[in-house]
Design a protein that fits this description.
The protein has 227 residues and is α+β, with helices and mostly antiparallel strands. Helix content is 31%, strand content 22%.
Length: 227
């Protein structure tokens, strides 16, 4: 006995009938939801100018991701506003000295010190504030400053203007690179282009690209008298 398969016309009719049934079911669903809108909205009508279908397909507002403030483990004190110069540096600095780097140690975060740090030890040659000549002094700075370029190397000679220690015992140079001066082998303090711009009005150092430490200390002393 041969099985009879429906012809193309019959297949099309069946598909159309299925689609009509699907559309009818969907319309019934929308109509039923329209009756439920007052119940879902607490007995109120759908928003003015909007149909039940609009209410059904309304998109929920996108979730707003709350982003808290970026936490920086160490923020240097704010340098006083206005043109940079020794008076501003002296007001901000807790320690000023010239010295040579004798030891560098990277210290991981630990109990009592929540951030990773770098400890740098200097042999103090001359002191203008907060250090003792001939002794060693160790400063601790946040590892992020080291990573951003504020680094030291063994045997390096510098003059530093340092902020007072923070609550975490951390410090950095006043005004970033402006609070750090290189010292050459002959003992001359070297001034960068940034230093020349900052101290161009200084009666002792103005316009000089290098100075003996005695002249440098004299300029700092004059600035101290102006405070």
């Amino acid at each position: 006995m041969l099985t009879r398969f429906p012809g193309p016309s019959e297949q099309i009719l069946r598909v159309e009938a299925s689609l009509m049934v699907g559309r009818s079911s969907w319309c019934l669903l929308v109509a039923a939801f329209a009756l439920l809108v007052p119940v879902l909205t607490g007995g109120q009508d759908a928003p003015s100018g909007r149909s039940a279908a609009d209410f059904l397909f309304r998109r929920a507002p996108s979730a707003q991701i709350s982003r808290g403030p970026t936490i920086h483990p160490y923020r240097p004190p704010i340098t006083p506003p206005g043109a940079f110069g020794f008076p501003q540096f002296l007001r901000a600095a807790g320690m000023i000295f010239s010295g040579t780097v004798t030891h560098i140690e990277r210290r991981p975060a630990r109990a009592g010190q929540s951030v990773e740090t770098v400890a740098v030890t200097f042999h103090v040659e001359s002191s203008l504030r907060g250090a003792t000549p001939g002794r060693e002094v160790t400063i601790t700075q946040w590892i992020g400053l080291w990573s951003s370029g504020q680094r030291y190397r063994m045997g390096e000679r510098v003059v530093l203007f340092l902020y007072p220690n923070s609550k975490l015992g951390l410090t950095s140079t006043v005004g970033g690179s402006l609070g750090r001066f290189a010292v050459d082998r002959a003992g001359w303090v070297l001034l960068t282009a940034q230093h020349l711009a900052a101290f161009r009005g200084d009666p002792v150092l103005g316009g000089k690209s290098r100075a003996r430490f005695g002249d440098f200390a004299l300029a700092v002393g004059h600035a101290g008298e102006e405070e």
